[in-house]
Design brief:
Layout lengths: L17 E10 L2 E11 L4 E5 L6 H9 L6 E6 L2 E2 L10 E4 L11 H11 L4 H14 L15 H13 L5 E5 L7 H18 L2 E6 L2 H7 L2 E6 L2 E6 L1 H6 L4 H6 L4 E3 L1 H8 L5 E3 L5 E4 L8 E13 L3 E8 L4 E7 L15 E7 L3 E3 L6
Parallel strand pairs: 3-8, 3-9, 6-7, 7-8
Antiparallel strand pairs: 1-2, 1-4, 4-5, 9-10, 11-12, 12-18, 13-17, 14-15, 14-17, 15-16
Helix pairs in contact: 2-3, 2-4, 3-4
Bound molecules: adenosine-5'-triphosphate.
The site of adenosine-5'-triphosphate (ATP) has 12 residues, from strand 2 and helix 1.
């Protein structure tokens, strides 16, 4: 891509395992999902990311068949399943609360789906051993669920769903109940397992870091619609709307009027704080860079980074974030009240084509 190109790369379109067309879901007067189209590719790890109430879980439940769409069509593996009951769809769901049977051992829990499907005991034993080994809990097969940690229970829930070899695995905030460290370990596990089994994963989360870390593509939801869908890099580096720019990490949104004064283009742009540099107020700015004067309002030490809030012209507050790579005892470079110049390279600003304010 040319370095001065502010537009996002063209997304590649490919139809795959799950296809939703014009899906709408209303609960009485409340519309939870609005005329939604979505294609999930075969073998893909797709995350549905968005704030609470944006419709992610409803879409997952519609794919699973737990919820009927008010309008629209659902295809799984090319087959129209809009009116097909959940147990006849080639999908399986992993829930946040694990939904394990408390009185059954781990091995019995994992075997349950195969038993219901009438598979022989010998078949079941071999498959269960393999599935439990896949989530690295072979040594715990004879325990009951309450004798496991949250992360172990979640892995068993995963093994139980995967053993049925669904075409698509639906995961509804499966790591939501885990503490931060365990959650990060499980994210790596989940990615490894998905790569090994090659099954399509559709994953619901409201945690942006989790979505960016795990997914081949992220669908960002807002008010029952997908605002943007793309790879982690596409949605983070080239947000198409202000909502996406603000929801995924921190963003400096430069209004069109100021952008026009700075660059000659009346286009709302977003600049990530890690791309914003702080210079002395009278520093010479390299040719081609954009800069505005401002006053330091706050300096926030976050551990790995330092975040500086700057009041610039027109009441605009900008954020600059830098890695703390200098010596740990080194003095803070700026203080509240300092006059500074805030600068960024022109091609580090992403145009928000769908935002006009
Ligand atoms: P969260 O992250 O909180 O789970 P979400 O993005 O998954 O949120 P949904 O659970 O899909 O959101 O809900 C979307 C909207 O639909 C919400 O406003 C919710 O209150 C509403 N909703 C969901 N299920 C029902 C229901 N059975 N009856 C009425 N309204 C519902």
């Amino acid at each position: 891509m040319p370095s001065s190109d502010l537009s996002a790369p063209a997304p590649t379109v490919q139809v795959g395992d799950v296809a939703l067309r014009g899906v709408t879901k209303s609960f009485g007067a409340m519309t939870a999902v609005r005329d939604l189209d979505l294609d999930v590719r075969s073998g893909e790890f797709l995350s549905m990311l968005g704030p609470s109430g944006s419709g992610k879980t409803t879409v997952l439940r519609i794919i699973a068949g737990f919820e009927d769409a008010t309008a629209g069509e659902i295809r799984i593996g090319g087959e129209d399943v809009t009116r097909t009951p959940p147990h006849l769809r080639q999908v399986n769901t992993v829930f946040q609360d694990y939904a394990l049977f408390p009185h059954m051992t781990i091995a019995e829990n994992v075997a349950y789906g195969l038993a219901v499907r009438g598979r022989s005991r010998a078949d079941r034993t071999a498959a269960v051993t393999e599935a439990i080994a896949q989530v690295r809990l072979g040594h715990l097969a004879d325990r009951l669920p309450h004798q496991l940690s949250g992360g172990q229970r979640q892995r068993i829930a995963l093994a139980r769903a995967l053993i049925l070899r669904p075409r698509v695995l639906l995961l509804d905030e499966p790591l939501g109940a885990l503490d931060k460290q365990l959650r990060e370990e499980m994210q790596i596990e989940l990615k490894r397992i998905q790569r090994e089994v090659g099954i399509t994963f559709v994953f619901v989360t409201h945690d942006q870091e989790e979505a960016l870390t795990l997914s081949d593509r992220v669908a960002v939801f807002n008010e029952g619609r997908i605002e943007q869908i793309g790879t982690a890099r596409e949605v983070y580096e080239y947000p198409q709307t202000e909502f996406v720019a603000r929801f995924l990490g921190l963003s400096n949104i430069i209004p069109a009027a100021l952008a026009e004064r700075l660059t000659g283009r009346a286009q709302v742009v977003s600049v990530r704080p890690e791309r914003v540099r702080l210079l002395d107020a009278d520093a010479t700015v390299p040719a081609g860079d954009i800069s505005v004067p401002g006053t330091v309002a706050e300096v926030v030490y976050t551990g790995p980074t330092t975040r500086v809030l700057i009041d610039a012209e027109d009441g605009l507050r900008l954020i600059s974030e830098t890695q703390n790579t200098h010596h740990p005892a080194a003095d803070v470079l700026v203080q509240r009240g300092d006059r500074v110049r805030v600068a960024w390279t022109a091609d580090h600003a992403a145009a928000l084509p769908e935002t006009t304010a």
